[in-house]
Write a structure and sequence with these properties.
heterodimer; A: 342 residues; Formate dehydrogenase/DMSO reductase fold; 13 helices; disordered N terminus; B: 441 residues; mainly alpha; two-stranded antiparallel sheet
Chain lengths: 342, 441
């Protein structure tokens, strides 16, 4: 007979203290950065998957070239968010892991397969040239994984706003699709800025289509949210979340204008603003719930002492990371003689 | 979870060690202006790219699975375990960033800057291995119990079992991967390559064996330190590792043997009188606490723990012997073929030792997930579908492993037979499409 576990956890203090707020803000920021970079990698996989016609190979090469050096670093933000979640909010991590067993497994499967497929293909080129052109079976796996992963991540996010963590619902489906569309938009815009000529035109067109899809999804999502996500939906349109939502709508319009005028640098800026504002609006409306109606940040939080340690360590870690990331992007993204006035 | 972790360790070990090797090779190449060593570094970095990526996605899988499979464990101890992962996260981030710079920056960074990013990959890789072991160490010895939640940093970094575990585990990863690489190079040498490739494989073999030899020599020392810590802090695990049922003064060291739990004996073991007492406590007459000190319901699986330990020690000895034999022949420009065959033969043993050593740690802790705090059965998820999850991951991992192996073999054979040294530079470009295609469209 296994013995009883020792004394139960000390209950966290009621109400969200400064440390809890700071930790939640940190989690939101990390997830925001992931939404900015990680989702774009998924989107790139989508463009890879849908590339057709005589330019298909050029599109795929642009994707491989754009993602290659940075995708692993981009991906670490997700690991970081997960670690932060279970360090700072262990109860929420435990609840989500149990209730979202299926969608998180599917997202994970997609992440594993696409990452593996991407390196197999990128670094397999070398091996395959010796024996003629490579059959692109990894491309399909990479593309499919890139579609599945953000969809189920979005689905899981939506579930946190629904009673009882229901994840198979019209609302969750809409949020999942929106997540995919946001990634596709980011990727197309970033790739448009990194390429020129016919490729740039293609990516700009793709970005326009993704933005339109995102806008088309937004209205029914908001409409369904009002009833399906009773803690989140109504609060998106009033109180502190409203400015973010309105600014996001403005960013979307500016983004559309930049795309129409074929200005990829401006579109990159407005796309990033759009994604971050949407996320900020969501996070603000959801606060203080981590799991709507069930777990607030304060109730899920680790003891204040451990939160403070995490927050104290953070600046030191950032001191290490920020210059390193800056170097990575400066080397591979900053200088690009291929981009310039045509 | 165990499968994911065991699988992750395979790739993580390469992720920690290959950067070390490629940095050595590039360093030699730059110092001696040897294109041979630079080419070697490039080839190893190609393999490192694939293995690191798999290590990274399997690491992601692990952080998900902590919640998917062990929600209650994480709900209870997340802050403490998380602290180790949090620290490791920074190291891993640095590793990923500089690996990107290294892999894609051959032409974009100055030579020594490039080497320096490789060095940072190697250092950060080992650091992340050391730090993440902190989480496991606390599960073995959750000092201060849940009081640790008040000061997780000290609970993780101040844990007395952590330094020997981290050292032993990281050295084991180096040794295992270095022997595996050496085995690969020896295999290529056995296939009678042309002169240019032979020189490269030979240089690779030398560097890999250098790391392997240092690792193989340091392993018994760190293992001894680790075992003495276990003896002092986790007596039940030690008893299970050794098949020590009764508490005994002057306990013997049992080599081999199959524990019979019902009769509480170990059959067919070679016993060295007082050996265990001396090894564990440095006194031949010291009392070793047996399994009987705790009720049988709290015993780990004695057979698995004992056999795992025997396999770990048993497989590391041939490695040490092979490394020493190689050291005597290292000066020769053509190592004897029997030695190459031997190196191929022992190359999987390092990983066998790495995996069984970890299994000993985990089996030896059962039935606890957190020693003395939380039983494993209470830590596991109540969600249904666990068997499907397990089956799915096993199939996925098996498939990916097969692909990686197939892939690495193709990578090795890439330059094509008879096409020798100078065709390789051009082909290398194709592995890094960024360079070739910069102005393509």
């Amino acid at each position: 007979m296994p013995p009883e576990p020792a004394a139960p956890l000390p209950l966290p203090a009621a109400g969200a203290g400064g440390a809890v707020r700071a930790a939640a803000l940190l989690l939101a920021v990390v997830l925001g950065v992931y939404a900015l970079f990680g989702l774009a990698d998924f989107g790139a996989g989508l463009w890879d998957l849908t590339a057709r016609g005589d330019r298909a190979q050029a599109v795929r090469q642009a994707v491989a070239r754009g993602m290659g050096p940075v995708w692993e670093a981009n991906h670490v933000w997700l690991i970081f968010a997960l670690v932060l979640l279970f360090t700072a909010f262990p109860a929420a991590f435990a609840r989500l892991g149990t209730a979202l067993f299926v969608p998180l497994h599917l997202a994970l499967g997609g992440i594993i397969l696409r990452g593996a497929a991407f390196v197999f293909r990128a670094h397999g080129r070398q091996a395959s040239r010796a024996a003629g052109p490579a059959p692109d079976r990894w491309g399909a796996v990479f593309g499919a994984g890139s579609l599945v992963a953000p969809f189920f991540l979005g689905l899981s996010l939506a579930a946190t706003a629904q009673p009882g963590l229901a994840w198979w619902s019209p609302f969750a489906l809409l949020v999942g699709l929106s997540t995919v569309a946001a990634g596709a938009l980011e990727a197309a815009v970033y790739l448009a800025a990194e390429n020129r000529g016919e490729l740039r035109r293609r990516f700009l067109a793709g970005a326009g289509a993704s933005l339109a899809a995102l806008a088309l999804l937004a209205l029914p999502t908001l409409a369904v949210a009002a009833t399906a996500a009773p803690w989140l939906g109504p609060r998106l349109l009033r109180g502190p979340a409203l400015p973010f939502v309105l600014l996001a709508a403005a960013a979307a319009l500016l983004d559309a204008r930049a795309l129409a005028r074929a200005l990829p640098e401006a579109a990159r800026l407005w796309t990033a603003a759009l994604v971050l504002l949407l996320w900020a609006g969501w996070a603000t409306a959801a606060w203080p719930w981590l799991v709507s109606g069930e777990l607030t940040a304060a109730a899920a939080a680790a003891p204040a002492a451990s939160l403070r340690q995490v927050l104290l360590l953070l600046p030191w870690g950032l001191l290490l990371l920020v210059p390193a990331l800056g170097l990575l992007f400066a080397v591979f993204k900053g200088r690009n003689p291929a981009v310039g006035p045509e | 979870m165990g499968i994911s972790l065991g699988w992750h360790m395979l790739f993580a070990a390469f992720g920690v060690t290959l950067p070390l090797l490629m940095v050595l090779a590039e360093g030699v190449g730059l110092l001696r202006r040897s294109p041979l060593h630079l080419e070697l570094a490039r080839r190893w970095s190609g393999a490192a790219a694939v293995l690191f990526a798999i290590g990274a996605v399997s690491g992601t899988a692990l952080s998900f699975e902590l919640g998917l499979l062990w929600p209650r464990l994480m709900g209870l101890a997340g802050p403490v375990l998380g602290m180790a992962f949090f620290l490791e996260g920074f190291a891993f981030f640095v590793e990923a960033i500089f690996l990107g710079l290294y892999l894609y920056g051959w032409e974009r960074l100055p030579a020594w800057g490039h080497w320096l990013s490789g060095l940072l990959v190697a250092v950060a890789g080992s650091a992340s291995s050391v730090l993440v072991t902190g989480a496991n160490a606390w599960m073995q010895l959750p000092r201060e119990g849940l009081g640790a939640l008040r000061d997780p940093l000290r609970a993780v970094l101040g844990n007395p079992v952590w330094p020997p575990m981290a050292l032993h585990g990281t050295l084991a990863a180096w040794t295992a991967a270095a022997f595996a690489v050496a085995g690969g190079e020896a295999w290529s040498l056995l296939r009678r390559p042309d002169e240019a490739r032979r020189a490269r494989h030979l240089a690779g073999l030398r560097l890999a064996m250098l790391v392997a030899l240092v690792g193989a020599l340091a392993m018994p020392l760190s293992g001894d330190a680790s075992a003495r810590t276990v003896a002092a802090r986790e007596p039940v695990k030690l008893a299970a590792m050794e098949g020590q049922f009764a508490s005994q003064a002057g306990a013997p060291l049992r080599i081999g043997g199959i524990p019979d739990v019902a009769r509480r004996t170990v059959d067919w073991a070679l016993e060295i009188p007082r050996g265990l007492s001396w090894l564990a406590f440095r006194r031949p007459g010291a009392i070793v606490r047996g399994l009987e000190a705790v009720p049988p319901s709290l015993w780990p699986n004695v057979t698995a723990t004992h056999l795992g330990f025997q396999i770990m020690v048993g497989s590391s000895l041939p490695l040490l012997a092979a490394a020493l034999l190689y050291a005597f022949h290292a000066g020769q420009s053509r190592p004897p073929r029997w030695l190459l065959r031997l190196l191929v033969a022992v190359s999987p043993l390092g990983f066998l030792a790495l995996e069984t050593g970890w299994l000993v740690t985990e089996f030896g802790r059962q039935p606890w997930a957190l020693s003395g705090l939380m039983p494993t059965a209470r830590a596991v998820t109540p969600a249904g579908g666990l068997a499907w999850s397990l089956l799915g991951f096993v199939l996925l991992y098996a498939g990916l492993t097969a692909t990686v192996v197939h892939f690495l073999r193709r990578l090795e054979a890439a330059p094509g037979e008879g096409d020798g040294g100078d065709g390789e530079a051009g082909r290398r470009e194709e592995a890094f499409p960024a360079e070739v295609l910069d102005h393509a469209p």
